[in-house]
């Protein structure tokens, strides 16, 4: 028996924050610029005659502006009171969840809800929620520092990617897809955050490895990538990143179906899509 269009719409409600063509363009440009801010030390050859290297300080100033521009573009004309209320509730929950895992290696509960929310409410909502969640949690845990804009951008990409996953996958295959995505995000987040700080760390020595793993300005790209790969593998992948991947997987498998159903039901009741003709749903 074929489901009616209304039934299918209730299963997959419209995004809470629609991406217009201009929003998509701004988001794409910001993503490319953000990636460049992570990888620029690997691509630039410094001038030996220069007394100081300006790009690190320039990027630290530009990255918050970049995030702010995208947030303004996404929310301008695309966020009503119901969307704002949902964003505020999920931001508060995510900020509280992150504080529960503070100090425990790899136990970070902020990402699984971000993945589920981006899946339920769309890519634009996921991007904004990633930014607001990390910002609110940083204020709550006194984690404000030069690393915060990088964390916000990485979390925003996680929410964005969740909203861009194939929409026609439902049921157990959907949960399996989200688990795989959560694992990917756990390692990608750790890798990018390592890349944001590694070029500025001097004299890196790792027990069990001979030689320095520090970034060498002007060295061949593959040589620096080799150092960075070993550095990440020995310091992050086997501990924090794997713990984060396990946390994401367990949380999505155990809580994912119920939370997805709750979020989608909340989206239908808030009428993010054209559901005015839908029959009244019993409480």
Structure explained in plain terms:
By secondary structure, this protein is mainly alpha-helical. It has one domain: Arp2/3 complex 21 kDa subunit ARPC3. The chain contains 9 helices and no strands. The longest helix has 49 residues. It is globular.
Secondary-structure topology with pairs:
Blueprint: H1 5-11, H2 21-43, H3 55-75, H4 81-100, H5 110-121, H6 123-141, H7 148-164, H8 171-197, H9 221-269
Shape: globular
β-strand percent reads under 5%
Mean pLDDT: 77
SS-derived structural category: mainly alpha
CATH class: Mainly Alpha
What is the domain total for the residues? 1
Instruction: Indicate the percent of residues in helices.
Output: 55-70%
Specify the number of helices.
Answer: 9
- Low-pLDDT residue intervals, each spanning 5 or more residues: 1-11, 48-54, 273-283
